[in-house]
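Researcher: Predict the fold of CD209 isoform 1.
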Amino acid sequence: MSDSKEPRLQQLGLLEEEQLRGLGFRQTRGYKSLAGCLGHGVLVLQLLSFTLLAGLFVQVSKVPSSISQEQSRQDSIYQNLTQLKAAVERLCHPCPWEWTFFQGNCYFISNSQRNWHDSITACQEVGAQLVVIKSAEEQNFLQLQSSRSNRFTWMGLSDLNQEGTWQWVDGSPLLPSFKQYWNRGEPNNVGEEDCAEFSGNGWNDDKCNLAKFWICKKSAASCSRDEEQFLSPAPATPNPPPA
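Model: C-alpha cells for CD209 isoform 1 follow.
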C-alpha cells in the first residue's frame, strides 16, 4: 500500500509544481505588460510637455514683435494728430474758443452769474462789452441763444441815468422799433428795476444788483480772402432754367 501511494504523491507534486510554474509564468508576463504600458505613458507625457513648452516659446517670442508694432502704431497716430493740430492752428479763428460767431461779431454767454455792473466789468476784462443789440437779426439770434439755455441773461441796456429813458452801455438810445421786444407789461419798474435782461421770449427789467448770467460782444477777427473762402459755405448752385 505504501509503495503505491508514493508514485501518486510524486505525480501530485509534479502537477502542483507545473501549475505553480504556469502561474508564475503568467504573472511574469502580466508584470512585463504593465511595465510596458507605463513606459509608453511616460513617453506620451514627455511628448506633451515638449509640445506645450514649444508652443509657449513661440508665443513668448511673438510678444516683443507685438509690442513693437503697437508702439509704431501709436507713434503714427501721434504724428498725425500733431500735423492736424498745426493745420488747425494755421486756420483763421474769427472768435476765441467758447465764443459764438454771428454776422461779423463774437458772443460769449457766461456760465456764472454776476450783477449788472459786474457783468459790464467782466466783458471789459476780455476786450468786449455787455451786449448792445443793433439789428432785428441780432436780437433774434441772441433771444434764441438765451431761451435755449433757459437763463435770465443781462444785456447792456438800462435806464439808470433817467427813469424811463433806456440807453445802451455804448451811449446809444434804444430805438423805438426795439420796444416791441419787451415782454407784455414790461418794463414796469417794480421796485427800482433799471436794468434789462433776456427773459423767456423777450425782454424784462429787473433790479441791477441781482446776479444773473450775461452776454459779451466784440468784433470778430478778420481773415484772409483764402481763409474766408475756406470757412464760408459753398454757394448754392442755381437751378437750370426750364426747357
